[in-house]
Amino acid sequence: MNLTVEDAEQLLHEWTASPSLLGHARAVQAAMRHAAHRYGRGEPDEPSWALAGLLHDADYERWPDEHPARIVAWLRDRGEEEIAHAIAAHVSRTGVACESPLDKALMACDELAGFVVACARVRPDGLNSLTPSSVRKKLKDRSFAAKVDRDEIQHAVERLGVNPDEHIQLIIAALRPLAGELGLPVGTSDSVGG
Questions:
Q1: Which of 19, 64, 66, 169 sits a CA distance of 20 to 30 A from 187?
Q2: 80-87: long-range contacts at Cβ-Cβ below 8 A with a sequence spacing of 24 or more?
Q3: CB–CB of 39/105 below 8 Å?
């Protein structure tokens, strides 16, 4: 891999100022790091999968109408075709097929990571007692986080071919260490929320 984490973070901060978009990038990066171990080859995949998560929306704030063309071109210029393809595939209007485990994992982690954070924001203890059933209940409530495309989440998880509850739990576990950074209550809990 030619791309360093430092280069990726520098670009992300050059192109993105919004704290919420930066938090989303970090959340999807964390989810993808975990996903590499569950759906990929583990340690060998972790760096590229994490970078795909970090950079997937890097050009969105500056060039929303061109997204993801700018970040895809930037990655291709650096020889990062696998990451570029996954990022292109995560935006349906590009017409790029979602083929590899990386492509499918990015699709399955992107919207759902944002939704899990939204779920945690309305709980007094944030992610600490959040469970897959709590997330599923909120997914059924179309008025909650109304802009989230529930069909996209469902199709992405189906395309990945995994148990939805296990995938939601993977994302919850990936985000817990970032709770403070995401503006959520910090701590651990063994309790079960509803």
A1: 19
A2: 80/1, 80/2, 80/3, 80/48, 80/51, 82/48, 83/3, 83/48, 83/51, 83/52, 83/55, 86/52, 86/56, 87/52, 87/55, 87/56
A3: yes
Judge whether residue 190 has pLDDT over 80: no
Amino acid 91: pLDDT: 87
Residue-wise DSSP of 43-72 = TTTHHHHHHHHHHTTTTTTT-TTTTTHHHH
CA distance linking residue 119 with residue 12, whole number of Å? 25
Mean pLDDT (the chain, rounded): 93
Number of domains in the chain: 1
Cα–Cα nearest to 157, from 146, 169, 142: 169
CATH number of the domain that 135 lies in? Answer: 1.10.3210
* Predicted pLDDT of residue 192: 38
